[in-house]
Amino acid sequence: MSDVNFDLSGKVAVITGGSRGLGVEMAAAYANAGANVVIASRKAEACEKAAADIQSTTGQECIGVGFHAGKWDDCDVLAQAAYDKFGKVDILVNNAGMSPLYNSLGEITEELYDKVINVNLRGPFRLSTIIGERMVKEDGGSIINVSSTSSLQPSKNEIPYGTAKAGVNNLTIGLSRVFAPKVRVNCIMPGPFLTDISKAWDMEAFEKRAKTSIPLQRGGLPHEVVGAALYLASDASSYTTGAVIKIDGGSAFASA
User: What is the pLDDT of residues 93-110, one digit of tens each?
Assistant: First the structure.
């Protein structure tokens, strides 16, 4: 029996929304596994700092690129920056997302709705198309989308976001068939994670609710996404494509 191989030596990974939260955890994990990394998000300075920190810690080459997932042309710019620097992309993680608050559905403007759909769904479609088609022509690769349990069970404050993320689940399955057999396309579906975003939560209320609505009775810690991220990026998942892996402490489909 062969050993499970999570090694990413010689690989190049592009991670959107990679300067903080789950994105930077995945970026660091990939670099620790031997990959060179492109970190992309809206704030170029934050990307460059995260890249410098990871490079200093791991010794792997990392760069930061300013990127807005909701802008079609930015996807082309990011892809070109990655290929110009490293000559290839082996792993793409579509992690960038946004879920703005609103008071009622009637207050959602066309501009806000379009922004949520564009960042969460249109961006992953465009970037996956550009990079995925090149992967097919070259040495193959792995595309990992990041969805949300809101795609299955949206709260009243997550309707546009949940709609977009449901599209990401569908996109994952569709692209896994389009790009097969050389490119695997899978999805991580996180539940509530205690990242920097959770600082805005009412933690007392969340922890109380978690005791009854989440089987593991807590929110996830950022490093707890790393196992799935490494699995899907590496040869350990060589027979996995079109999968949506739920990492949520059991919250989705659990009784409240």
Answer: 999 999 998 999 999 999
> Of these residues, 30, 102, 161, 231, which one is catalytic?
161
pLDDT in tens, 31-58: 999 999 999 999 999 999 999 999 999 9
User: From CA 125, how far away is CA 247, in angstroms rounded?
Assistant: 22
| Cis, bond preceding 181 (omega within 30 deg of 0) | yes
CA angle 28, 32, 34 (to 5 degrees): 120
Active site residue 161: yes
Q: Whole-model pTM?
A: 0.94
Q: Structural domain boundaries of the chain? A: 12-245
Coil, helix or strand for 122? helix
Report the alpha-carbon distance of residue 251 to residue 147 in Å, rounded: 15
Query: 77 is written with which tokens?
Result: 């710019």
187 bridge partner residues: 145, 244
CATH tag, 12-245: 3.40.50.720
d(CA 243, CA 224): 18
What six digits make up the tokens of 111? 């501009």
Residues 16-49: b if buried by 16+ CB within 10 A, e if exposed: bbbbbbbbbbbbbbbbbbbbbbbbbbbeeebbbe
**What are the tokens at 238?**
């060589």
